[in-house]
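Q&A FORM
Asked by: J.P.
Topic: structure of L-lysine 6-monooxygenase

PROVIDED:
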Amino acid sequence: MSGQRNAPGAVRRRAEHLFPRKPADALRTGRTGQWQRQRVRRTAAGPVISRHVQHAAGRRQLRSGRMPKRIYAPLRPRPCRAVPRDLMTAHIKNNIYANSKDRNFMGNSTPHSLHSDAICIGFGPAGIALACAVEDAREASDPLGALSIRYLEAAPDTQWHRELLLAGTDINHHVFRDLVTPRNPRSRFSFAMYLKDQGRMFDFGLLGRPASRHEWSDYLGWVSLQVDGHTRFDTPVTEIDPVIRNGRVHEVRVRTPQDSFTTRNLVLSSGSAPRMPQMFEALLGPTLFHTSQFLTRLQAFGKQLPKRWLVLGSGQSASESVLELVSRDPAIEVHSVHRSAGFKLTQLGQFPNRVFAPDHVDYFHSLNPAARQRFLDWSRSTNYAGIDPDESQKLFSLIYEDSIAGRTRLHTYAYSVISAIEHSADGYRIELTDTFSQRTRMLEVDAVVLGTGYQQYLIPPLLSGLQPWLAADVDGGLLIDRDYQVATQGACDVNIWVNGLSERSHGISDSQSFSLMALRAERIANALERAVEPVIDAPLLAQWT
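REPLIED BY: S.T.
REPLY: Here is the structure written out as tokens.
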């Protein structure tokens, strides 16, 4: 095929007329009508069909630093073999931007199609970070931005920590560790851009404390509205099935209560699951619940809040639950149960917290499974079962001030476990056992809050239908490479990535932490671009004879 550079000047000018560039501002605002009408043109030489790869004028490099790939039509002056009319129609119908009944990437309404280049399950912080990486690629005219990616979210919106969105709570990471800054400090989706847009840049600089949890949640919502072209909320995924053709898993079918969708590229951003100790499972309900349901359960009581509470756990969610309960009603008493000495501070030292740096992820991933587990056990104090200094101060001050007033609203039980629990007429009868002395005591409470944290499954339940094609490690869990891609086995053509579900393979930073979320999104986005590259590298060109 002759290249355009070798064609005569007049022919090059004709090619530029046939393949106009789409302006970058049209990419963002959806002004695509005239450009799309020019995609299929009939000339004296016959019909020419092309798929446009977005490279904005004046931009010479992709996000990754590679030179953009140029696609030229063959311009040898020979008769053209006619392209059937139905092929032209099919090409327009299968435009890579027009594959959703939701708003597409350009903001336009499009016919309903159930297939996408990729599907991301979950549109919490990890899913939004991935959407930001794709949107930044689109604005930089990177081919990654041309992919159709659908996001399915079970929640009604992107509210962050909705069940613990309490007054006086703040984030426990630096604001630079937002959705995009470690990946691209110039991105318009940074927390700094949010502050600028909201008119709070200078006031935040004078604040002298971390961003509040309410403000961080608002930041996530602000970003989600700008990248929400292909997102469905209130859409829980119920099942993922293999679609087998000619004996191979050709793609997967993602089922929801309303629809089903197919794709060959799946990103799982569904987050960790609440850890429920088995002894409580049969008793779960309105008066015994996990902190992941905290505010919903409290609101259901209305003004008739129970007066006797037990809170199990020593982490941030448990401490916040205790403080919230005693602030709601001065008549409330809380029994706080700890396996350890009580609430302890999270490891805040600079050197231990380097485990959240990118080079530590490389190091951790290079270790064997046994060494990884030892590393995880050592690093847990940087992220788990610890509270912030201000929370510790509030809790201890509560106990101290109550002793002055001659009352006790917070009872703490150190080195203790719940050895038995039963439902009673007035609530629950609970037996506590001291782990050292083995002495027991009985408590009667009206309600129980489980601050027992979260867990990542060896095999996420949503992937159970694909388990025969998933390679397993020595513990029976997923094998995950450095780019967060799940290893498959046998006749499987589907690509799967986990976005925030790979603590066992990538370390403590891959838990519920913002620390490396932006860089993880970049890794997955680049791997996704490579996986779908044939779509970009093989456009429909005219058939010349």
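FOLLOW-UP: The first strand starts at residue 40 and ends at 43.
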